[in-house]
């Protein structure tokens, strides 16, 4: 493990300048400070300093996910994380990121500079700089619904296989045979899992999979209008959606086309956001317990900080049956 | 939630008799006590009483797994569990079970009677009474390597997909093409996972799967002699084993047949038990961090007790390269 002396030697500067850089003292240039921090990260000094800090500090970095309002997906996740953190005497900073911040500074440097010993990353895409840097990070990091092979990185999520299976079984019990899947964006691990889960479940209940009844949209309501027509013309009597937002778009599009839910077509969502109860008809959906996701993310982060290399932690989903599903029409 | 009054009413006895039964007072018959406890469990009274107990108590129930010696699979798991429990001020009882105990008393009744608010079950088979009762339990329960759909039951394990993939990649890099799998006992979730992981990994590296090179043994050394001959006559140059004990049997059988490891045939294990370092040649294997498994089991149990419905928690395995693997012979 590198010492302050090693860093000073490598940069050809004094030990006191390194110390000032690491501690954020005001009398050295910002440029020098950045160089000291980057070198400290490179030489593996990071964790040592973090260990010395008395109060443990972690952060939630949020990119591209709404979380400020209780109706939004991220809200309860952040609440759950903070609940667990408070009980374990750990301070949490919630930091919305932006392109400027992500490109200006490396992830590990950001963490070291701010004295964070771990982070929960929410809403990042695979091509984001911080996500790509995770292959080599030494910082304990938890992702939502995304896998990284690095031993310091784990992920939390909801068991989508179990969830999709419950939805398909529910529709099967109602006599549906032609079941469509409107999935989320491509290039997402969750989207891929839900597709495989759909194929597996259809097989389990001996239902035929029609490629015309499987499509990728995006995780927004708007994507429904591109696919619902095709599903209908291929005889779908039920549409399984990869999120509640997609399902809300599907219900609207069905209404626009004069198709009744659930009399003509049943619809299921995924997430159980508050809107699921307010849609008309109310939405049958697969519940992700978001408070529990947040709590689990924190306990996982704590274990990763302590050197327990958790790969993944999946919660049990729950099927919430409401009014958007019903018997298959004759 | 049922009250003491409800239990008294149901059994047609006085409230004070119910109270004596629940608290283990000496002046009622053992038969009456058992009836009170069984009724309390049936009526969902259990968790309420447990909540009232000041100090939290959990147990590890061990069936058919050796744990008393550091060389044995269960030892470090128990150590890891206790380490986490102590840090969280929770008392742990380690209880080896026996057929008598398992048949005499229901799982939930046993837990209530002894004031345990959760249990970690080690080494049980799917047909054991306690495992079958888990479908309906209200007691927070963690299993090693076994799934149950009940929301109060979760499982910890090591990511076998990742592990087997690393072993196959390692052999592939050494030029092996005819790779055999000597798996564990049938009817085990882990055995099934390892078979699927093997098929997936072979496919990933474009290696042909030969059904003659896949066999189920048992998780003991002795099973090797039934399969190694068949593997050799079908041209295997590498044998991936589902445990270190199986691998030790395979190495002995190869020696007996005059085949050199790794010059003629490479062998890999799974677990990284202490014996892996003492075999000759030392064993290349997929490490399960058993202390971390125990620690994870405890934090999972704690979350289940708190109502967070964790389905599974998987650790990252590690490939430990030693002397039992080498380049594929010409």
Structural notes for this entry:
The first copy, chain A, is α/β, with parallel strands linked by helices and 330 residues long. Chain A has 14 helices and twelve strands. Chain A has helices at 4-11, 15-23, 30-42, 46-52, 73-87, 99-104, 107-113, 129-133, 160-173, 189-204, 228-233, 244-256, 275-278, 290-305, and strands spanning 56-62, 90-96, 118-122, 140-144, 153-158, 179-183, 214-216, 238-241, 266-271, 284-287, 310-315, 318-320. Chain A is elongated. Among the domains of chain A are: 1-44, Orthogonal Bundle (434 Repressor (Amino-terminal Domain)), CATH 1.10.260.40; 160-288, Rossmann fold (3-Layer(aba) Sandwich), CATH 3.40.50.2300. Chain A has a six-stranded parallel sheet, with helices on one face. A six-stranded mixed sheet of chain A has the order 7-6-8-9-10-12, sandwiched between helices. Chain A starts with a helix and ends in a 10-residue tail after the last strand. In chain A, helix 9 (160-173) runs parallel beside helix 10 (189-204). In chain A, helix 5 links the parallel strand 1 and strand 2. The A-B interface holds A 149, 151, 154, 159, 162, 289, 292, 295-296, 299, 303, 306-316, 318 and B 149, 151, 154, 159, 162, 289, 292, 295-296, 299, 303, 306-316, 318. Strand 11 (310-315) of chain A pairs antiparallel with strand 11 of chain B, so a sheet runs across the interface. Chains A, B: InterPro entries: HTH_LacI, LacI/GalR-like_sensor, Lambda_DNA-bd_dom_sf, Peripla_BP_I. Chains A, B: Keywords: DNA-binding, Transcription, Transcription regulation. Chains A, B: GO terms for molecular function: DNA binding. Chains A, B: This is LacI family DNA-binding transcriptional regulator. Chains A, B: Residues 2-45 form the HTH lacI-type domain.
């Amino acid at each position: 493990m590198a010492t302050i002396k090693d860093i000073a030697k490598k940069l050809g500067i004094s030990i006191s300048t390194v110390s000032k850089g690491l501690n954020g003292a005001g009398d050295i240039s910002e440029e020098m400070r950045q160089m000291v921090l980057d070198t400290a990260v490179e030489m593996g000094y990071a964790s040592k300093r973090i260990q010395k800090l008395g109060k443990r500090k972690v952060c939630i970095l949020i990119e591209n996910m709404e979380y400020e309002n209780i109706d939004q997906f991220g809200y309860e996740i952040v609440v759950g994380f903070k609940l667990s953190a408070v009980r374990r005497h750990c301070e949490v900073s919630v930091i919305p990121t932006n392109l400027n911040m992500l490109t200006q500074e490396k992830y590990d440097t950001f963490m070291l500079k701010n004295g964070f010993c771990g982070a929960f990353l929410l809403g990042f895409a695979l091509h984001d700089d911080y996500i790509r840097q995770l292959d080599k990070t030494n910082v304990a990091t938890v992702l939502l619904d995304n896998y990284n092979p690095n031993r310091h990185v784990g992920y939390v999520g909801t068991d989508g296989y179990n969830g999709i299976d419950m939805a398909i079984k529910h529709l099967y019990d109602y006599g549906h045979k032609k079941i469509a899947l409107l999935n989320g964006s491509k290039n997402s691990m969750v989207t891929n899992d839900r597709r495989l889960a759909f194929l597996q479940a259809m097989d389990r209940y001996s239902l035929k999979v029609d490629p015309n009844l499987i499509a990728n949209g995006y995780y927004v309501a708007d994507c429904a209008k591109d696919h619902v027509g095709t599903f209908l013309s291929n005889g779908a009597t039920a549409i399984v959606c990869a999120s509640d937002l997609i399902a809300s778009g599907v219900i609207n599009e069905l209404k626009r086309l004069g198709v009744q839910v659930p009399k003509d077509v049943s619809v299921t969502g995924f997430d159980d956001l508050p809107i699921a109860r307010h849609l008309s008809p109310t939405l049958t959906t697969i519940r992700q317990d978001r408070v529990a996701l947040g709590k689990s993310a924190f306990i996982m982060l704590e274990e990763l900080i302590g050197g327990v290399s958790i790969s993944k932690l999946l919660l049990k989903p729950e099927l919430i049956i409401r009014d958007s599903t019903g018997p298959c029409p004759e």
